[in-house]
Amino acid sequence: MGDQAYRSREQKLAKNNLFSAVNAFGKSDLETVWDLLQADSNPLLNDLLARSGGGKVASEIHFSMALSLLLSEKLLLEKEESLYLYRFLQELYTVHPHLSRAACSDLMALYDRNPAVRDYGTAFLEFKGYHALQCYRVAHILWEEKRETAARFFQSLISER
Q1: What share of the chain is helix, strand, coil (3-state, %, to 5)?
Q2: In this prediction, what percent of the chain has a pLDDT beyond 70?
């Protein structure tokens, strides 16, 4: 138990040092997380980030593009449907930029609080709870916009996958 507590404390200190060092340059949390995702050596993450496009767009927009692509590929099996859902999600993230900030905050909280998370890339790509939460946030926005059929469809799709 002592070793585990020490490792957990050591991991927390390393995480805090990483964020304080990066944020010392005046970057927002979203820019910091985006930079960390881009620096990750995971080939699956690198492929996803490359396919999400974006070029020289702002970190928030590129993060939402990568998240849109990830969620659309996780939810739908058909390539054409996945592309349609990607465009739909990207449009929603553009209209509601707070969704990207919330997704970034969720990723940071997951990294800070879960000792199984060693890097942002793995959590971003593989943690189903994170994906589900982002999808439910989208469904909630649709519900609030009185797009109830779309919200129900999206919720149904989430629970199926």
Answers
A1: 80, 0, 20
A2: 76
